[in-house]
Write a structure and sequence with these properties.
By secondary structure, the protein is α+β, with helices and mostly antiparallel strands. The chain has two helices and nine strands. The N and C termini lie far apart (about 105 Å).
């Protein structure tokens, strides 16, 4: 006997995702309206520029998570539901304009399968790209203190080079004769 489709209700906590962040999608699968325990498989895929950071199904679900896909299995007793927790990472540099996630539920009983597509806009950057640009292309006039560690490293390298030359005897200032003498 074919059962009704399993309910699949998942939502992001915000209506817009931000590049460089991890968003959490939570929801439920079920309840199992059949008379027996059902083996349920939950699968998902996302577009490039986004990726799964982690997926958890409670109670006692087992998940295999790859970068852009996941598969979870859980046994649902009659009347039970499963809690789904999906952590989705949005790439800071390669984020698409819209994140599309396709979720599907399959059951050991025919007719209980279900699927949905989640489409969430990825909003403007919250300043992390501007901060990254500032760190990689800073002006010395705005950050003069950044010059001090660079100067210290240069002087340390110069001193190490000089000490190495003195040990090997190749220092241009050391000579076997007195100054001004031609060998």
């Amino acid at each position: 006997m074919a059962g009704r489709a399993l309910s699949l209700d998942v939502r992001f906590s915000s209506a817009q995702l931000t590049p460089g962040t991890v968003a959490t999608m939570r929801g439920t699968v079920g309840p199992n309206l059949s008379d027996g325990t059902e083996a349920v498989t939950i699968s998902g895929t996302v577009t490039r520029g986004t990726g799964y950071r982690g997926v958890h199904v409670a109670p006692d679900g087992e998940c295999v998570v790859l970068t852009t896909s996941f598969t979870c299995t859980v046994a649902l007793a009659p009347g039970d539901s499963a809690e789904l927790d999906i952590r989705l990472r949005v790439d800071a540099l390669n984020a698409p304009a819209v994140a599309r996630q396709q979720l599907s539920v399959a059951s050991s009983r025919p007719g209980q399968g279900n699927a949905t597509t989640s489409t969430v806009p990825i909003g403007p950057d919250d300043g992390s790209q501007a901060l990254a640009a500032a760190l990689t292309t800073f002006e010395m006039t705005r950050l003069p203190e950044a010059f001090l560690p660079l100067l210290a490293m240069f002087l340390f390298a110069l001193a190490a080079t000089h000490a190495g030359r003195q040990r090997s005897g190749t220092d241009s200032r050391s000579s076997n004769g007195s100054p001004g003498e031609n060998p």
